[in-house]
Automatic annotation (TrEMBL):
This is Molecular chaperone. Residues 27-234 form the VTC domain. Residues 245-264 are annotated as: Disordered. SUPFAM superfamilies: CYTH-like phosphatases. GO terms for biological process: polyphosphate biosynthetic process.
Length: 264
């Protein structure tokens, strides 16, 4: 049973076809935090043009990501302060296949996200092995970032169900993540069952999914599963970059600020 009923009416696409037509390892990402009902409406409206990733008859695939950072949270702080040269390191595991990859994200020209990854045979380890540390530092070096792999420790786990769509002309991808959960190793956790994170991934031009969301009044949000999730679970961390999303979606009973009360 899929998390989004609307995908039942979409034509399927295999993982091999998806990668061939729209790998998009270097891309422009736009993220939207919306109710699951809005995500359903978006997918239903794309039925005439979108294809959905189908793996063994499943169209909602379980993802788990373990994020690594330094004890000082260098990766988090670079993102929170909007630094151009920032990075993210995670081990992503696909629950349905058991495959794991070590992934490093950096920023390319014009704000593009650049993702590089390598297979990770030990998806359950809480530390990077020597090969993993070399891979991380090589990727960071190419991006002009000082090596930090020797310092990395696990700091956050995320879990969710993902539905992936392919949109043609020009080829772009849309992912819809539901069942969102965050947890600090050995610490608190957080779930947002009524929300979805929709992410569009394109070479440059906004996709038909972006335009549909804009017409419905939804604009891209500054949201990061790592940054926003860690900030929600550690209230002492600087989080101005994600404050609007945190207040609107992560605070169960937000108290309006004087400016918000005046605006209403």
């Amino acid at each position: 049973m899929t998390a989004l009923a609307a995908v039942a009416g979409l034509a399927p696409i295999t993982l091999e076809e998806l990668v061939e037509q729209a790998a998009l390892q270097t891309r422009v990402d736009r993220k939207y935090v919306v109710p699951v009902t809005v995500a359903e409406q978006l997918v239903a409206g794309l039925a005439g043009c979108a294809r959905v990733l189908d793996v063994g008859g499943r169209r909602d695939l379980g993802y788990a990501s373990l994020y690594f950072d330094t004890p000082e949270l260098t990766s988090y702080l670079l993102a929170a302060r909007g630094r151009r040269r920032r990075f993210k390191v995670r081990r992503r595991t696909y629950a349905d296949t058991g495959q794991s990859f070590l992934e490093v994200k950096t920023r390319g020209g014009r704000g593009c996200t650049v993702k590089e990854r390598t297979p990770d045979d030990d998806g359950h380890a809480l530390a990077l092995d020597a090969a993993g540390r070399r891979f991380v530092d090589e990727v960071l070096g190419r991006a002009g970032i000082d090596p930090v792999a020797a310092e990395l420790v696990p700091v956050l786990t995320t879990r969710y169900e993902r539905t992936t769509l392919l949109l043609p002309a020009p080829a772009s991808r849309v992912t819809v993540d539901t069942g969102l959960r965050w947890a600090v190793p050995g610490g608190p956790d957080l779930g947002l069952p009524g929300l979805a994170i929709v992410e569009t991934k394109s070479s440059s031009t906004p996709s038909v999914a972006d335009r549909r969301l804009w017409r419905a009044g939804h604009r891209p949000s500054r949201v990061s599963k790592y940054g926003t999730g860690l900030a929600a679970l550690h209230e002492h961390l600087p989080a101005n970059r994600w404050h609007p999303v945190l207040r609107r979606h992560f605070d169960p009973d937000p108290t309006p600020t004087p400016q918000e009360r005046t605006a209403s």
